[in-house]
Amino acid sequence: MKISLLLLLSTYLFAALSETVHSSVSTYYETKSYSNSKQKLDGKVYGVGADLHYKSSEYKVAYEKGGANTRQPPLHDDLRFKKLYLRYAYKFQNHLSLNLNYISVIDDNIALTDGGRSYGLGFSYKIDPHNLVNLTQYYSKYDDFKVYQSDARYDIFTQLSKAKVKFSILGKYMKIKETAFNAFTKNAKDHYSTLGLKIHTHYNSYHLGAGAYFGKRSFAIMNDGFKLQHHAMEFDRTYAIGVGKTFSKIIFRTQYIYQRAKELPIQNENVTIRNLRFILNYKF
Predict the structure, then answer these.
(1) How far apart are CA 246 and CA 281, in angstroms?
(2) What is the mean pLDDT of residues 157-165?
(3) How far apart are the first and last CA of the chain?
(4) In the chain, beta strands by DSSP E
(5) Is the pTM of this model over 0.85?
(6) Please, which of 72, 106, 140, 234 could form a disulfide with 118 given CB 3.0 to 4.6 Å?
(7) Which residues contact 78 (CB under 8 A, 6 or more apart)?
């Protein structure tokens, strides 16, 4: 049923491309390497997506599947998962827009968060051509607990010589509420708050970006609703850097992400995760 929904939506998106501006399709591949983990060794993630702009609306979808080689014991099988991300945005006027988000953990053969759902509602306000504010509230529901997440983002747009620059300041607040005692949240805090800083520059056909998150977080929604950390890990450091280049209608990007976390069920600290991501985007 979930796959049929994805295919139906994708068909609609592609059928409407002739009426759109700045639409795109994308695919990405990601490798993960774990150090000091007592549960995971390494993993891979594959994803496809589409981003459709039509009149005052934007439709965005991504489907990803992946997995990880695990240590057995304590785990009984290698990890396999599938996720679906949806986002709809509508611009009411030049200054105000609405965004709706939906995330589904379609399948996870290990985690208690299998079958979880996340919902988001937010507003963006463009103060002037150089300043924009976004506020989004997320709600994630799993069998044994719920997560309420509040996001605030302030974007500054400027130009340095011939380079276009976007600087973002992000704040995240998460509240975890147990509905049943479980291994995933028994060692988690009730509240988390995180500060993030991002910068992206665009010079001619080249792209350069960097970002960092400080402060602890767990079961967080990231990347404007297109990344869900649904395993029982408490992150306290994230650093990322990315480069890219545009070739006519094709954009190729690569990103390196370093994260430090604690595996909550077994209280295993100083786990490091190194991600290498390759993204291919084709604009229409």
Answers:
(1) 9
(2) 94
(3) 29
(4) 24-35, 40-54, 57-70, 79-91, 96-108, 117-128, 131-141, 145-160, 163-178, 191-203, 206-218, 221-222, 227-228, 233-247, 250-263, 268-283
(5) yes
(6) 140
(7) 67, 68, 69, 70, 72
